[in-house]
Amino acid sequence: MALDTVAIAQVTPDTSQPFTELGLKPDEYARIKEILGRRPTSSELAMYSVMWSEHCSYKSSKVHLKQFGEKAPKSDALLVGIGENAGVVDVGQGYAVTFKIESHNHPSFVEPYQGAATGIGGIVRDILTMGARPIAVMDPLRFGPADAPDTRRVLPGIIAGVGGYGNCLGLPNIGGEVTFDETYAGNPLVNALCVGVMKHSDIKLAKAAGAGNLVVLYGAKTGGDGIGGVSVLASETFGAGGSTKRPSVQVGDPFVEKVLIECSLEIFAEDLVVGIQDLGGAGLSCATSELASGGSGGMKVQLDKVPLRDPSLSPEEILMSESQERMCAIVEPSKIDRFLEICKKWDVTVTVIGEVTDGKHLEITWNGELIVDVPPRTVAHDGPVYNRPLAQPAYIDQVNCQKVNVPIPVTAAEIKAAVLKLAAAPNLADKSWVTSQYDKYVQGNTIQSQPDDSGMVRIDETTHLGVAISTDANANWSYLNPYQGAKLALAEAARNIATAGARPLAVTNCLNFGSPEDPGVMWQFAESVRGLADGCLEMGLPVTGGNVSFYNQTGSVAILPTPVIGVLGVIQDVRTRTPMSYTKAGLDLYLVGQTHEDLAGSEWAFLHNQRVGQSPDADLQREMRLIELLLEGNSFFAAAHDLSQGGLSAGLTEMVLRHKVGATISLANAGVSLISETPGRVLVAIDPSDTARLAGLAIKNAIAITKLGITGGDSLTINDAVIPLTELSIAHTSTFPKLFG
Amino acid sequence: MRVGVITFPGTLDDRDAARAVVVGGAEAVSLWHGDADLKNVDAVILPGGFSYGDYLRCGAISRFAPVMQLVIEAANKGMPVLGICNGFQVLCESHLLPGALTRNSDLHFLCRDQEIEITNNQTAWTGSFELGEQIVIPLKNGEGSFQCDDQTLAMLEGEGRVIARYVGENPNGSRNLIAGITNAKGNVVGLMPHPEHAINELTGPSAQGLGFFTSILNAMVK
């Protein structure tokens, strides 16, 4: 193919261009021509197509996401908000923490290992780009039915990819989720969270300021992998048949990324960069246009200088490639020698590919010929914005007016069978098969990890300051009521942190939905965003950033609306954290919070194929009082464990099996008490001598408490049902090995 | 007493090993793979990780690092050297220890709290333990299955050079449940599990890994 230059584009206005194949709509193509006053060159078309993709431009979600800014609670903690690579929050003692979740759903279905691996790689570079040392990862995952043949292909590959990449980077994996539902069968969700820490003064931003400063590309060489990943892969619905799109999946090398992290941190420590951006989705198109529009706009890039893995790549392909493990920095000329020296020390390939100018255009040349000449903002930020039609889907009224119809266990035999059934259910079963493939110890600061309620890492060895993070979603509730579902997920994530004694501080999210072109899906999305924004405002937690993943559907079947909410909290002294279970007999077990008959969206209903009824309403005022109770009780609680999916039955199972110390429980209305999933409940173990202190906290915070029983013995005994721990343990731990080998 | 901790590209547990050295009571000295300089250290630790991304074979490239030539020389003269996980693999590739570490028998990366039994407390790195003492420290690797030919195995067993064995079910298919071995002199030790991640109960399963780091101090005082 002959080189298409700006000069040629000017004189050949009628040349036919493959904009549809690149994922652009006719009106979007027309708009590009309007902006440029001519047809785009093929390189410009490539850039606009990836940057105006749903994945990069948030064109369908922008109008809704604005609420996170408009309804933002007043917070002194937020140092960098939405719009940068990741939000940054102040955690005290001069430390800042940055965290974010991103999706890598479609690539992980096409090529599970590499899709998941590069999902981790991408989010880690986002965190690094802010100037932070990455300190932990988490991975909320969702799959098709546990016993479906394709799940056996997808799940082991994704787990191995998350582990293979994260382990090699030396990042502890401190938690996540593994959930199964048939709607994820052709569309698994791979969300990856990374958290990093830095000093306030070390925060870096994506801006190319200062004419004459150099544009430096460093890290891996550019190859032909991942071309159009954000446009043809992430922003389209999978058809039932069709090509597998495997070449659009990036291929990662965690060793290169590990070296890139250490090299970058050394560069940051010597203050050698003015601005920095990682190359992730949309590759060089994204990095150059975002850096340029973060500054005054002017930048010249010599694309032929980009080091290539495959010398046959065309300029269009180089601009679209999503080859991993690359960073782009803006460096003052006086600091370039030291920059190159550090790269040499780490054997990192580094090339000066251009410079910042005082103009307004991003100009890219190929062997001296001008192939891109655009105002960078039009590429990076002024993409199309759609206010897509939305309408409450018909199913909502249909399912909301029905009542859950499931058997309620009554007799001792039924209670025992129900507890064992829930313990073994794939959504609730022991996840060691998964988490034993992840390194949780590296860096030596992991305080809590799976199966704890939240992940917790120490960030200062002297003062013992730490952060805790939890990610949660309850797609069943979101399906029944997306507004409440988002609020409930937020409340659950915050509660999971507070059970350990950490105070919730900030929120990130990964909003996974079907096609935005379906008004029903768009309504689910809009309701979820409204719920999350309202919830964050009420709880005083700022949203620091997030990610939207649309087109998660196979044919016309969309996934359940799955807003994954991540909450980060701070604990002043990690040594004081409350563990999720107890180690000794003779403690009193209390239910903190009240149980109602909340079976809609419960695991018990799911196990009986019932997806009907009304989700509970989120009472965030009560949730906040519960959080205060937990934080105050942290000083004397022997253990505290959140009750959520699987209710009291699952909570008790996890608690007694953790250290193999049983419990004897007496329950009124045992069946409903065990399987109901009323939100805002925590199981707490205390020494009997602390009874008055707990009662005092309950009164002060207006939270109901009920004594359930005492700890000890080698069984979980509920009224007359005696479940030996050995039997419970086998039920809980056999599911995954049986399914996945 | 100065204990060097080597960083190769891709090393992960270097800061953890340095922390354990300090908690054990010695001074930790950072050594860079590309510098042919041992900085006057009294002992050396090769920490865990994926040096050179495990390209070719685990440890196969690191073995040629400039610093390794000095380590091999010093080890042959009696300097205490401990290789943990990837460090063990490097020591095998360097022929300071016999045998090789291969893929875990179930082909998965495995991270878990592992019970091991100390079966030789006469080395520079195990003197603080009782013979037969059972400790719990993290095991985390993808290629931890110790393999060697029958003759080598007989030699290791005959000379008491197996310093630690896995207790209970074999986690990775290692011959004779071998978790760690030593050289003939007892100054070079390779260990698959990670004692540096068991120096307190806050961040590890126990504090029982500390014995490896106090052992070296005692060995030098003697």
Can you offer a commentary on this structure?
The complex is a heterodimer of chains A (741) and B (222). Chain A is an alpha+beta fold. Helices cover 37% and strands 22% of the residues of chain A. Chain A has 26 helices and 28 strands. In chain A, the strands form five sheets. A seven-stranded mixed beta sheet of chain A has the order 8-10-7-11-9-12-13. The longest helix of chain A is centred in the first third of the chain and has 21 residues. The radius of gyration of chain A is 26 Å and the shape is globular. Chain B has 222 residues and is of the alpha/beta class. Chain B has a single domain, classed as Rossmann fold, CATH 3.40.50.880. In chain B, the strands form two sheets. Chain B has a nine-stranded mixed beta sheet, sandwiched between helices. In chain B, helix 2 links the parallel strand 3 and strand 4. Chain B is globular and about 40 Å long. The mean pLDDT of chain B is 96.
The whole-number mean of residue pLDDT values of chain A reads 94
**Quaternary structure annotation:** heterodimer
| Major sheet characteristics of chain B | 9 strands, mixed
List low-pLDDT spans of chain B: none
| CATH-defined fold name of chain B | Rossmann fold
Strands of chain B, count:
11
Low-confidence residue ranges of chain A: none
| Biggest sheet architecture of chain A | 7 strands, mixed
Please identify the structural class of chain A as seen in this structure: alpha+beta
Shape of chain B: globular
Fraction of helical residues of chain B? 10-25%
Evaluate the radius of gyration of chain A.
26 Å
- How many structurally independent domains of chain B? 1
Number of strands of chain A: 28
**Structural shape of chain A:** globular
The H-and-E topology of chain B, N to C, reads as: EHEEHEHEEEEHEEEH
